[in-house]
Amino acid sequence: MLDRVSLSLKLHLSLIIVIGTALLKLGAWYWLLCYGVIAILWAIFLQANIRKLTGLLSLELVFLSVMALPLGWERASFLLVRSLVCLVTMNSFLLTLPPHSFGIALKDLPLPKAFKESLLLAGQYLEILLLEVTRMQRSAKLRGLGGTAGWIRYTSAAMIGAFFLRSLDRAERVHAAMVARGYNGQLPVNSGLRTKERFTLFVSSTMAISLTVGSYLLD
Questions:
Q1: Global confidence as pTM
Q2: Phi, psi at 107, each rounded to 5°
Q3: Where are the domains of the chain?
Q4: What transmembrane ranges does the database entry give (predicted)?
Q5: Which spans in the chain are helix H?
Q6: Mean pLDDT estimate for the chain
């Protein structure tokens, strides 16, 4: 079943969930719970690695909590949970993405060419980011910091800074290698959504619009 779903459809469905969640009315907890259930089911459907997913989420939530907590507990708690739903959705997609296939999924998005190129490079960076997270998790485990709690303690401010510097350095080297191999900003693969996939997108978009609009009209 999972093999029959194209990369483009997975990306579209992930974006529908993320955009619908991001546009929810502030404080609409019931509707956010609905999207949370959808995000969890989406992660199960994609068969995302739970250990990698929780490790990546814990690192991202450290940054989000620093930004959101000054807004007040009530507002910050909703923003953090909403961000968590979005992160679960997109991280599940990225963790199950075959290497260097982000451009294939990106090809069908209705976006300007320059923006697609920027997203492609961002996708390559995210792949590198996931690899660095895996390496840091392995390093933390060797130091006896196993489990989610140990991983969070390991991600101190100094380690987070070193983590992103290493990721940025690798990203620059990857981009230089792409340019050396003739990369000129063109996406090499052209694909299209099938009729059934377009119908699936239509149904999913309708459901997402109903949930998001409902958070404003019925909450």
A1: 0.68
A2: -60, -30
A3: 2-217
A4: 29-46, 53-73, 199-218
A5: 7-22, 29-46, 50-68, 73-95, 102-106, 113-142, 147-154, 157-180, 195-217
A6: 78
